[in-house]
Every structure is written in C-alpha cells, then in structure tokens.
Amino acid sequence: MRLLALDYGADVVYCEELIDIKMAQCQRIVNDVLETVDFVAPDERVMFRTCEREKDRVIFQMGTADPERALKVARLVEKDVAAIDVNMGCPKEYSTKGGMGAALLSDPDKIEAILKKLVKGVSVPVTCKIRILPSLEETVNLVQRIEKTGVTAVAVHGRFKDERPRHPVHCDYIQAVAQAVSIPVIAKISPDDSVENLYYKQCAF
C-alpha cells in the first residue's frame, strides 16, 4: 500500500502505529528473497517490513510512553526509514491504556521528554502527531512547547480526543497552530472532511 501511494505521487508515507514494547524485541533481518528489511519478533512475526524503494520516503510511526524505549526502537530502525514519528493522537484503547497515543496529551512533560530524547539520539528527523485539546489556547501552547524540542514537523488531527470521523474537523484549530509556529504543520484529516479555507504549511523532508 505504501509503495502504491508513492507510485501515485505521495511525497511521504507512514507505517501503521507500531508499539515500542513489541518493536524493542525485534531483530533486524535482511530478507534476500523479498529484497526487504524485516523487523522480526521472537515469535517470528514480522512487525515491520520496508525496502530500498521507500527508504527515503517512509516514516516510522511509533506508539510509546517511555523515552528510553522510544530511543531504543528509533535506533533500531533509523537506518531504514526517512523519519521517526510519535503518535500522540490515537484514541483507541490498545494505545491509550499503556499511556500512549492520545493519553500523552494530558502529560506534556512526558511528551517533551520523549521528543527531546529522540531528537538528540537519532540521525533522522523526528515528528509527532497530536489531536487538538479542549481549548484553542491549550492546543497552541502544547504545539509551541513541542516545537521547542527540536522536532522537524508536527501533524495536527483536527478533532478532540473523544471525536471520531463522523464529527466535523476543526480547521480553525489547525490554522491557528500553523500560524503560531515556524515548523511545518501537517493537517491530519479524513477524505470526507471539508477543508475550504484551511491554512497549512507544506512539509518536506
């Protein structure tokens, strides 16, 4: 799917959110048959697979709540990906119950610790994705704090933590964030969202 997206003109592609605890147990294996690089768990499941054709375009999306473990995983994959992304917007239980995803939005100190650790510890760009907070001011303040960690870009999902795709996207929040920071802001929206008058900054790695 990622390669198909690149064939059709995507600038960058993301893998699905992969949990740090599982990835930290993986071994990096070069698969000569498929011409891929596989990250294989102890039970022999392939947790992440990539290839040379997407190496400079694929962003590794991680679910994490621990700076040290996040760094361990990032260092494991950094030679095979274009960037490392921390998912701070997933509202699903498998992510939030471990303090990951949208659960991080209530702990800005941990957000800062994770991102600073990654920015200082890996050689590729670091990004993150958030959901919007209950107020516009809180959202802007959080993104400004994230910017100071040294990340290359931030993606903003224009919905609150308890909202789903059936709810309208809050383009005014995304616009305000983009105007408040100097790093690229990626508007995370669904295909059916109306984005008239949406202001954004193009992100390029």
TrEMBL record:
PROSITE patterns: UPF0034 (PS01136). It holds the Pfam family Dus. Its cofactor is FMN. It comes from the Eukaryota. Keywords: Flavoprotein, FMN, Oxidoreductase, tRNA processing. SUPFAM superfamilies: FMN-linked oxidoreductases (SSF51395). Residues 29-187 form the DUS-like FMN-binding domain. This is tRNA-dihydrouridine(20) synthase [NAD(P)+]-like protein. It comes from Ataeniobius toweri.
